[in-house]
Amino acid sequence: MIVSSKPYPNLKTIFNKKSKDFDEKWKDFSFYKSGRDALLSGIIQLGLDKGDTIIIPGYICESAITPLRRYGYKLIFIDIDENANLPIDKIRLALKMHTPKALIVVHYFGLTFNIEKIIDMCHKFNVRVIEDCSHSFQSQLSGNIYHNSDMEIFSMRKSLPTEDGGVLRIKTASVENAQINNKIRSLGISSLKYLFIRFVEWSAVNCRINIYSPFFLKIKSIFYHPIQTSNVVNEVVTYNPSELLKSYLSDENYLSLMKSRVQENYKFLSKNLKAKGFYIPFEILSFDSVPQVFLLYDNKGGLVDFLNNKGIGAYNWPKNEMPQEIKKNSEIYPNTIHFDQTLVLLPTHQGIKKKHTSYMVSILEEWISIDK
């Protein structure tokens, strides 16, 4: 059996008529091709200038922050704590030492964190607070979780089967009118290309071809280039949302079923793996949270490779996209390094069915028996 790491396009949703109230529902949001484009655009709109300092958690992927580097922002990294939160004491020290203009908080893996104390402290220092909700758009939006931050960014393609999905919501008045060359484009034929690639992948999976075997992963690494940012750093391109993305965001039934399916998958894995003796980190599933993945610790090493060889699309994060500052100073960021090396991410998306979760449990039970 092959358990895909991402959901496949839903033809019923794609061919449904688009919601007439889409523009009204999403009028407070701006759309971009990727979350990192939304992040850069939003920070500029908040009034930050080139050379300004931004505090960032060390546990982050390089592709998300490369546009910020190229634009000219100075990035200060802080290690997260053992619960994946930014420690208040470290933030306070950074605020006094570096006089930053903004701080980025990441809601990891669809889990939402209480950040009101961080926001209150930052605002006292006149520091903008940015929520990176790339992993958790349903947890934030469908759960009506609203913090008093200055802006949110989303990357809906991490949860929905679409090529685009960068979304920005500015929640506070801009400091000044940002001087930015903001062009609006359409994705056009690229969505068709995306659908074709996903169809090929779906066909391979249904032919029981293990697309997570070492051979296929090597082929993917040759063609996959995670950082694709324009060299023109003073140009941020706003995209009209693709018809594919609009289809999903307009289909309330799809989104509702997606939420319930993901939560059911998470609860099934949690219950059954705990019974097998696995420790479940970050087990904070509130009624509204929609986890992007299921998390396990692998303190021995080799679990991701084992699962991939069994056809399960598990992975580590950010792995090869860990910022160089963290790699070169690992002793300063012990929790970030620990999560990067030991957290294993299992798929729980809306395309995962009972047979898939049962298969993952059986394979992990096999892993335990090997360990013994």
Task: Write the topology of this structure.
Blueprint: H1 11-14, H2 22-25, E1 30-32, H3 35-45, E2 53-57, H4 62-71, E3 74-78, H5 88-98, E4 102-106, H6 116-124, E5 128-132, H7 137-141, E6 151-155, E7 166-170, E8 181-185, H8 190-206, H9 214-223, E9 235-239, H10 243-250, H11 252-275, E10 293-297, H12 303-309, H13 324-328, H14 334-342, E11 343-347, H15 354-371
Parallel strand pairs: 2-3, 2-4, 4-5, 5-6, 8-9
Antiparallel strand pairs: 1-7, 6-7, 10-11
Helix pairs in contact: 3-4, 5-6, 11-15
Task: Describe what this molecule looks like in 3D.
By secondary structure, this protein is of the alpha/beta class. The protein has 15 helices and eleven strands. It has helices at 11-14, 22-25, 35-45, 62-71, 88-98, 116-124, 137-141, 190-206, 214-223, 243-250, 252-275, 303-309, 324-328, 334-342, 354-371; strands at 30-32, 53-57, 74-78, 102-106, 128-132, 151-155, 166-170, 181-185, 235-239, 293-297, 343-347. The strands form three sheets. The protein has a seven-stranded mixed beta sheet, with helices on both faces. The chain has a two-stranded parallel ribbon with strand order 8-9. It has a two-stranded antiparallel ribbon with strand order 10-11. Helix 3 runs parallel beside helix 4. The radius of gyration is 20 Å and the shape is globular.
